[in-house]
């Protein structure tokens, strides 16, 4: 079979080239897959690597992405339990850790996740980190201290998801398009966040305050 392949196909590249924009996502889960699909749709990487200790589930998710990548520019998609697959990466997204249960404070998970982070960060390349795990503020600081990276290379997701939800509510309740809404949710992610209402566009003020906007709506935005 190898001889037939060599006769039919001639490789133009003498050796496999290292990826220029490789992104790693650590842990297979709902958040992990949302990141992976978004990366592929936005064409942000020429190679995507998935890492998890659950090899069977990891292989299944990798194959799903590989089969669907035909419609998304065909980047290389690999996976593995071994952190060797993270070599040459530009960004490592960490979603792995103990997850918050309903009614549980995210602060209860800190020590458990600190131990998980120590293992993960000691095995990944010396590149940028994106932390997406609650309590994200504390764990981003922990990742920075453990890694020893410059602070500009350790990023937390912060309140970006809360801000996106806020924009959606503004569209749903007041009819303001999310791309025209530049208000933000600030503070420590969780129950301590603050919605900043100061508007940035006069058109938004006029539209939001017009009486017809709230006709027939008894809801209030909290």
From TrEMBL:
Q: Name one GO biological process term.
A: carboxylic acid metabolic process
**Any idea which GO molecular function terms this record carries?**
oxidoreductase activity, acting on the CH-OH group of donors, NAD or NADP as acceptor
Q: Which Gene3D superfamilies match?
A: Lactate dehydrogenase/glycoside hydrolase, family 4, C-terminal, NAD(P)-binding Rossmann-like Domain
The highest taxon in the source lineage is Eukaryota
**Which residue intervals define the domain Lactate/malate dehydrogenase N-terminal in the entry?**
23-156
Q: Which InterPro entries does the UniProt entry name for this protein? A: L-lactate/malate_DH, Lactate/malate_DH_N, Lactate_DH/Glyco_Ohase_4_C, NAD(P)-bd_dom_sf
Q: Which SUPFAM superfamilies match?
A: LDH C-terminal domain-like (SSF56327), NAD(P)-binding Rossmann-fold domains (SSF51735)
Its recorded name reads Lactate/malate dehydrogenase N-terminal domain-containing protein
Annotated source species: Pan troglodytes
Phylogenetic classification of the source organism = Eukaryota, Metazoa, Chordata, Craniata, Vertebrata
């Amino acid at each position: 079979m190898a001889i037939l392949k060599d006769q039919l196909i001639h490789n133009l590249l003498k050796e496999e080239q290292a990826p220029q924009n490789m992104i790693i996502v650590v842990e297979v889960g709902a958040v992990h897959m949302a990141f992976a699909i978004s990366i592929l749709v936005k064409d942000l990487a020429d190679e995507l690597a998935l890492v998890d200790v659950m090899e069977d589930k990891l292989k299944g998710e990798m194959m799903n992405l590989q089969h669907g990548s035909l419609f998304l520019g065909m980047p290389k998609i690999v996976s593995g339990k071994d952190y060797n697959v993270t070599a040459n990466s530009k960004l490592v997204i960490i979603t792995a850790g103990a997850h918050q249960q309903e009614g549980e404070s995210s602060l209860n998970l800190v020590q458990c996740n600190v131990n998980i982070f120590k293992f993960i960060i000691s095995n990944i390349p010396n590149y940028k980190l994106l932390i997406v795990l609650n309590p994200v503020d504390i764990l981003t600081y922990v990742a920075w201290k453990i890694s020893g990276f410059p602070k500009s290379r350790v990023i937390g997701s912060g309140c970006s998801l809360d801000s996106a939800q806020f924009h959606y509510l503004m569209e749903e309740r007041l009819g303001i398009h999310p791309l025209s809404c530049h208000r933000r949710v600030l503070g420590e992610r969780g129950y301590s966040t603050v919605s900043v209402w100061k508007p940035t566009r006069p058109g938004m003020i006029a539209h939001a305050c017009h009486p017809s906007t709230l006709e027939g709506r008894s809801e209030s935005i909290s």
